[in-house]
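haha ok so turns out i had the wrong file open the whole time. this is the CORRECT one, sorry everyone. sequence first:
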Amino acid sequence: MADRSAPSCHLRLEWVYGYRGHQCRNNLYYTAAKEIVYFVAGVGVVYSPREHRQKFYLGHQDDIISLALHPERVLVATGQVGKEPYICVWDSYTVQTVSVLKDIHTHGIACLAFDLDGQRLVSVGLDSKNTVCVWDWRKGKLLSMAPGHTDRIFDISWDLYQPNKLVSCGVKHIKFWSLCGNSLTPKRGVFGKTGDLQTILCLACARDEVTYSGALNGDIYVWKGINLVRTIQGAHAAGIFSMNACEEGFATGGRDGCVRLWDLNFKPITVIDLRETDQGYKGLSVRSVCWRGDHILVGTQDSEIFEIVVHERNKPFLIMQGHCEGELWALAVHPTKPLAMTGSDDRSVRIWSLIDHALIARCNMEEPIRCAAVSTDGIHLALGMKDGSFTVLRVRDMTEVVHIKDRKEAIHELKYSPDGNFLAVGSNDSSVDIYGVVQRYKKVGECIGSLSFITHMDWSSDSKYLQTNDGNGKRLFYRMPGGKEVTNKEELKGIQWASWTCVSGLEVNGIWPKYSDINDINSVDANFIGQVMVTADDYGIVKLFRYPCLRKGAKFKKYLGHSAHVTNVRWSHDHQWVVSIGGADHSVFQWKFVPDRKLKDTLHIAPQESLVDSNSDESDSDQSDVPELDSEIEQETQITYRRQVYKEDLPQLKEQCKEKRKSAASKRRERAPGNSIRLHFVHGYRGYDCRSNLFYTQTGEIVYHVAAVGVVYNRQQNTQRFYLGHDDDILCLAIHPLKDYVATGQVGRDSSIHIWDTETIKPLSVLKGYHQYGVCAVDFSADGKRLASVGIDDNHTVVLWDWKKGEKLSAVRGSKDKIFVVKINPYMPDKLITVGIKHMKFWRRAGGGLIGRKGCIGALGRTDTMMCAVYGWTEEMAFSGTSTGDVCIWRDVFLIKTVKAHDGPVFSMHALEKGFVTGGKDGVVALWDDTFERCLKTYAIKRAALAPGSKGLLLEDNPSIRAISLGHGHILVGTKNGEILEVDKSGPITLLVQGHMEGEVWGLATHPHLPICATVSDDKTLRIWDLSPSHCMLAVRKLKKGGRCCCFSPDGKALAVGLNDGSFLIVNADTLEDLVSFQHRKDVISEIRFSPGAGKYLAVASCDNFVDIYNVMSSKRVGICKGASSYITHMDWDIRGKLLQVNTGAKEQLFFEAPRGKKQTIPSLEVEKIGWASWTSVLGSCCEGIWPIIGEVTDVTASCLTSDSKVLATGDDFGFVKLFRYPAKGKFGKFKRYVAHSTHVTNVRWTYDDSLLVTVGGADTSLMLWTYEMEGHRDSRQCDSEESDLDSEEDGGYDSDVTRENEINYTIKALSTNIRPMFGIKPHLQQKEPTLDERPPVSRALPQPEKLQTNNVGKKKRPIEDLILELVFGYRGKDCRNNVHYLNDGADVIYHTASIGILYNVATGSQSFYQEHNDDILCLTVNQHPKFTNIVATGQETQQICQLQLHLFTCGMQ
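then structure:
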């Protein structure tokens, strides 16, 4: 049974034993429903003591370490550890996520607190600065952040009686924060003489600015404002870990095991010493208290939860227990009863009842326990210890039977034989000892075949054989009881194993990923009856596989909850449950086994949603029965949009070439040409790797994209308008519901999405900063306010935007594999779907995150690759098209049926008012009714159906359809071949736009006296285009190979085409029929040229470094030009047809005489005198200036000179088309540059009369026509050009003052202040009580380094007398501007100098000051709005260069 599919049964978490008391505090509360909320490992638990029932929140993927309860006591916030930790806010009734807050903290989230009305949440990170963040948690939006302290912060709380005030405490500090605007400003608490400076562990706020805090020595410190006013000494005998405020007063809990209750004025009410109660023990330490009414909850360091009723306070009720700190490895299940036994490094062994969900027995041993086993009759429990001994206890009363120590190193595994006669004990010193149970555990045998420590063992059913696994991954067999190793394969064949817990062996091959370390699966247990097995691994995951599982990389279902490694896992005796234990989280999880469910049940059980990729998930390894990927999809998934160099890198690259710039700037350079070009028409449509990127606009025009251009095409006038805001390939396009705005996403290192207006062609919003490498899908919400986008980074990040504000609302990692489409639910803008490679996911927004659920397929099949999706007529209906031609119909997240729609993949779908339209690879457009019950009509895209008004020719029948859109009585269809067609409902098809298909376009030639041009491409077609206003393709011919060059003969009757296999043909320029063909070379023909005049000779250059010269009349090769050291790139004849100029890939400029091909050496001065018939070369002194400063990174690929020899057009690897004056002598000439092509421009040519410039892009497959405009012809048009790379002094550089100011560097001074030793505190930064008339300052710069301040706090020094600033002379004018303003109708003047804002009263001559800045103020402005009189903003420089501090303050109210 080599089935690699996942089992159809599954596990459901039923109970978690334990509570996280170690290293956490204040993590235990009553909810509004009187349930108890806490956490253990990576699971949030809501426990109902009345019903003895647990609910679980499974949204985290690592240890939870902090928890806060919303003031309404229904919502809970939890924070986790991890590299990219996040906070989840969830509902304790439904245990569903409400919001996710992420992307800010690193390492972990140490504390959380809600404010009084529950709108804001504060969090503290575990990073080196212990960053404090304030969130608008519903929106998932960060409101403010600030470095918290240099040392750990243990608690933080909002002041419930003063808005916008917080208090935090930790190692040797307490800080009082005020939140103003988006700035958090701390003031350190002043300990003074009242108490010692020490670590504060917890706090609670009271009325009148009073704060109570619990200190490490057991005292309670009482603060008023920021000053310590009194201490309550000896409140506890040791550190106070927890303080909880309620209506009646305060509860505190400490390391001394006491809980104390205090009234509202902190007068003691009562003491409860838990160590003295029945359940108490020495060393009990309280980590968390919660007081509500007459109930008190207490959480302890050792994972217990007590509930105390106040009037019976000496009888606490123990409601939860777990193992204490230390690794938990030992697990055994009772052979006949629903009991599980666990043993841990805390030296306790515990017995749990799986039915009552309770601890029923506990016994403490001398040593840490590492493994356990129960005898077959259930009477004895054997425990293996860390010191190499083992102990056997009686299960019924936990009394010792025997204690034996034969080994020095830890015992890892023990197993009783099925007949109950022997106990096998495997240890760290590579051996297994066999003991006779009946002989009072006398040693009867030893197995010594292993070279490494023993990890797992299993007995055969007849107790005659034992198999072992060791640390090297070796599997060995022994004969029992003697322990002789068995190597004979025949003898091993028939063995039946009583249990299977080994991790290596043929039967469990499939549990290992294809490439995996042999040690990361810790435990396995097989359920022979159910034919399933369960595994536990180092990543905190419990997995369910089929058994046996023979082939590597089998599919599984996986379950999260444990945070660190899962050390052991076992089936209960009746296979009803699975018990798993966590190492570092020392928790015990009990899972209910749910056998193969009937399909009718599945629809009622919603899959548990989760933030991680899965809670019960298929694995990622490839299934054996996956259908082959369609070739077209295969091709598309392999396209990488990564670039060696992005356009964003240009400024940096230029910066690196500074030296070159300086030398160039000193020379006089030729001006840029006066004439310019303007984009006029683009042939092409990006269909081969994009979908659903073609729409009708409001006015009936058509919008689509090709290369880096958004095109708006008017089909009546056959004209185009262009959006040229992008600078690299556009990969996706979506239209606003009102059909007037369009969103387009592009490739880029930090790629951008542009939203622009199709009427004005102006950008409305540009969204950047979240997608790496590119954006492959976008979609507007139905109200048009939101936009969803998907990136092509490795995680295919999905982002939801408020695009008008340019604000990111939510983001999530989408999928490892490519995502093709994202769609926002038209009825609920908080929901969306994404589809892609083996991926269909339903998302809902939760604050700053999105929560995904995979589509539930049930028994209807497997997850196919989805190529398109739309929402249906209600909010829960969705439809997706698969790569096999089916349409899947979804309700909520469940697949309800599939309909066969096309042969081959369904690439595009569109929802109509009453029905749907689909398009597929089979070239058929199908119209469906609104339930996909029946297909109403189909249209096949065929040449025969083309209407006479078509602008071009259909390349083939039934081209693959990539985009469909409806409107204005027509269906608009985009094909993979780069064609856009309009299908009339009655049948005729009009071709509107076309371009080359996938593959690079290099060959371009313009006709010598007609407005037509020819192109040849790697898509194996030769095409002739009409450049006159009809703009269409006149003829096309398929070739046997792709081509890289073409050329018209001087009379325009013949056309020569060079192909990629080394052959070339000459065809009739009208009919494209062959005249003659040759093949003398094996490598690509890179350039081909007729000699001028009669066109007697044809020069053919190839990539194997030769140029062959043919006589056209006699069809013979008459000469070979040798001597090039690299492939030939460009070639030009002189006017007489006697001399050839050749450029090579090694940047050589060579000359050959025709027809023999003799190499000539010509000095550069002579070259300029020769009359050339054409100039397409890129080398030589007359075009030295066309090479950019960053010439090493980018190549100039093509050039072409106008017939009046004045303007040279070039194309380069960056996709720029540039115009230079000719000759372009001297380095780095000035130019005008134009962006429309996305990657390299492979060829440029002027038409015969210079009226148009024709350019082709390599990978972007487009052909662009630019009109040539003479100087003076300047109407208001978009983007004429960007000027040159560098502006030298002669461009009217800087005036000397401006130059000086431009060169001032503000950072050097800021750094130098650190070098000056500073003692004490600047007077204005000292901690002093604000007097009533002094408004509290709005902002405070970063505190001085902590070390300096603590010196002054603890020492009893004479206080420094305060100095008061009286008068300031000076005004900062040297490098600032617009920084003097009148206020109060001219009565006052405001300006600044040094770090002070000055308000000068003109009448009295007095000054008043704003002194909150701590470094030079550089700018100042006054709010002119009548509503905000006297509000001033000033900005300072600061040592943290990234942090500009802006202060807003009110004048005249000092």
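The chain has a mean pLDDT of 83.
again sry for the mixup
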